[in-house]
Write a sequence for this structure.
């Protein structure tokens, strides 16, 4: 009498399966609705926030780089110092080798001496008026070029002291400027010695 028939056993099995399905379905229903749908907007919002935060940083970095480039350009000596150094050296060379200005000045003094000196003047006076004054004019012009070379060279060498603090002066500018200063000093010294007849004075007429 206690034995179940096949129909009753199948009915019990179907009841147990149904109860298992009912148990699983509530667990599935507990998953929050819209979890999959809300993930993408949240990711997009995070990406936008990151992009918005990175943009000011990129702008700031670009501004810093531009400021550094501007500061580097300001610290770099301009072309003026290099040009001044070359001009100083050129003037020094001209003071030693002569120029057309000195040639014209000497020729003018020679012409004036010939016009103002009479044929009855002494030989010493004729030599002084015709040759001595011309040579002194040449020495004077050379001395002016030498003085200009000296002034420009000293100005170029002293310029960094009055410029941007910490701006180094290129070595080639210093070298050329020093060359101009040395040539100017030598040219000025020779011009003074020639003008005073200490160097290459007039020959004796006695």
């Amino acid at each position: 009498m206690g034995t179940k028939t096949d129909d009753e056993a199948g009915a019990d099995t179907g009841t147990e399966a149904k109860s298992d399905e009912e148990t699983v379905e509530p667990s599935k229903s507990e998953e929050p609705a819209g979890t999959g749908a809300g993930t993408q907007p949240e990711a997009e919002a995070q990406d936008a926030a990151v992009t918005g935060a990175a943009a000011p940083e990129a702008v700031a970095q670009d501004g810093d780089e531009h400021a550094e480039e501007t500061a580097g350009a300001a610290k770099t000596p301009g072309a003026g110092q290099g040009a001044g150094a070359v001009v100083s050296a050129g003037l020094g060379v001209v003071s030693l080798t002569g120029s057309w200005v000195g040639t014209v000045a000497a020729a003018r003094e020679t012409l004036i001496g010939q016009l103002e000196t009479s044929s009855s003047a002494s030989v010493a006076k004729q030599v002084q008026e015709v040759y001595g004054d011309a040579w002194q004019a040449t020495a004077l012009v050379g001395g002016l070029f030498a003085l200009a070379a000296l002034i420009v060279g000293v100005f170029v060498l002293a310029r960094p002291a009055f410029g941007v603090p910490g701006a180094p002066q290129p070595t080639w500018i210093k070298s050329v400027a020093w060359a101009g200063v040395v040539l100017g000093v030598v040219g000025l010294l020779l011009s003074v010695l020639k003008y005073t007849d200490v160097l290459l004075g007039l020959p004796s007429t006695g």
In short: The chain is about 80% helix and 0% strand. Helices lie at 6-29, 35-75, 79-97, 100-116, 123-158, 171-195. The two ends are 176 Å apart (CA to CA).
